[in-house]
Amino acid sequence: MLSQKSRYTIRALQHLADIYPHGMARMAEIAERQNIPPKFLTVILSELTREGIVISHRGREGGYQLGLAPVDIRYGDIIRITRGSLALVPCASRYAHEHCDHCLPEKECRLRALMLKVRDETAAILNSINLADPIVPVSDFAEQE
Hints:
The chain is mainly alpha-helical.
């Protein structure tokens, strides 16, 4: 499951993508419109600024804007930054691999083999979608059926 931090980060970045390249948003605006607690958003925006994904402008006319074009920010990268991995189990992680407690040897574990496939398919999807791609809200999608 996605962490709350990942969800908040995605919503904040989607907000900034909507106003790119001409707009800047104040933290209070993002927090209010995206229903993100301001203290949590401060931490998120600070991390994204360190990563170069967001640019922070100080002062009375300051705010935040994307540091990269929306087309260059993939959802897979966002989740890796906030969660560390796309894998559902630690032994299937490509970048944060850990052996699972109380498990079979990895070469014998069919669950791990399954989770590697899930990770690869998830990565393929999330790496193919970026902030510039239109995402249809579920309520709109359900009405189209």
